[in-house]
């Protein structure tokens, strides 16, 4: 197995591994690379739904089927992220998956099925590096603070189903999903590292209204979160697999390919409730 970092901050390409059949020692090497590099990439894997589910289950217990995404027939935990002719993707947001949940996912396994001839890359950002780049004064202001997260960005999208009366299926499902409140700075449950835990798709407001009086806004924090210095951009090929740590990254789907067919399969692993990283109690 060979692990080649994409840059000094985030991402690594791993070769010499058959993800469908790797032994325990090889998988442990993959897992340690996953923790170190935040997102790991593989080529020429061509995982079946069964193989993808087995691989994801090695990272932990699998999430329930996604409430909005369609899924592979007979495999409800394998979501289909698909663009078809006449059905282009909508607006893309930087996000950490499913932070509207009290316990957002640990990680995701995404496998490319078919792709446009060009375009459709995905970008990840290391949110631990983003936090480390903040001034000590701003870190003190964010210490112990929380923010509200809620479902947003799916209504009216390609993942919605609008009835004859104009009602949104997403809205009907999500109306009973109560907002949750997560620490703004989270301690990674395995490495102990602090990470800025905000994202523009699901973080809706800061709970401490005095932060804005001190000049701290979500707009500014989102802008800091998208710093190119802390990113990696991955160009998909058929059979490519990406596995990312959802606890310390955000990602962004580049929708520059119109309605050219593109399909990926995603399986998500359950996480735990985020815990605050406190400067004076680390």
From TrEMBL:
Molecular function GO labels: metal ion binding; taurine dioxygenase activity
Residue span(s) of domain TauD/TfdA-like: 5-267
Top-level taxonomy: Bacteria, Pseudomonadati, Pseudomonadota, Gammaproteobacteria, Vibrionales
The enzyme's E.C. designation: 1.14.11.17
Name of the protein in its database record: Alpha-ketoglutarate-dependent taurine dioxygenase
Family: Belongs to the TfdA dioxygenase family.
Gene, per the UniProt record: tauD
Cross-referenced InterPro entries: AtsK-like, TauD-like_sf, TauD/TfdA-like
Organism: Grimontia celer
EC class of the enzyme, as a word: oxidoreductase
SUPFAM superfamilies linked to this entry: Clavaminate synthase-like (SSF51197)
